[in-house]
Structure formats: structure tokens, C-alpha cells
Design brief:
alpha+beta; 26% helix; two-stranded antiparallel ribbon; three-stranded antiparallel sheet; 29% strand
């Protein structure tokens, strides 16, 4: 159990480029992402996470910089 805020955790791991906050209460590792479909992210283990509208642009920019091809613009 941790008594840190998610903001504190996010600041602590900011140098780890595989982690990204997807909504107000969750940070995920993109090393385990199987699929991104609009506002939904599916992990390799079957867990699904919803991306909030306020984090959608950050997710799109994050993916654009890491995917081959023209991207999602």
C-alpha cells in the first residue's frame, strides 16, 4: 500500500518513457499494450483501461512518436 498521490508517482517515474497516465486514477506501461482503440487501451493480460478526454492528446502524441508509419494524425 502506498500513501503517495498518483501525481507524486507520475513525477517519480517521469524519466521512464514507457509509462503514461491514461486517466485520473491510472498509469500504465506501454510495454504491455496490445491494442489502442479510440479511448480504450487493451493490455496483453486482457485488462482494459479507458483514456479520459483530458489525457487523449497526450496518448496520441505518445503513440505518434513510437509507432512506425504515418501515425494516427
Amino acid at each position: 500500500m502506498s500513501y503517495h498521490t498518483l501525481k507524486h508517482v507520475e513525477e517519480t517515474i517521469q524519466e521512464r518513457t514507457e509509462f503514461l497516465r491514461v486517466n485520473r486514477s491510472e498509469i500504465i506501461s506501454f510495454n504491455h499494450v496490445k491494442q489502442v482503440d479510440g479511448y480504450q487501451i487493451l493490455l496483453n493480460n486482457g485488462n482494459r483501461f479507458m483514456v479520459s478526454r483530458s489525457y487523449k492528446n497526450k496518448i496520441d502524441e505518445f503513440l505518434h512518436g513510437r509507432l512506425p508509419g504515418p501515425g494516427i494524425r
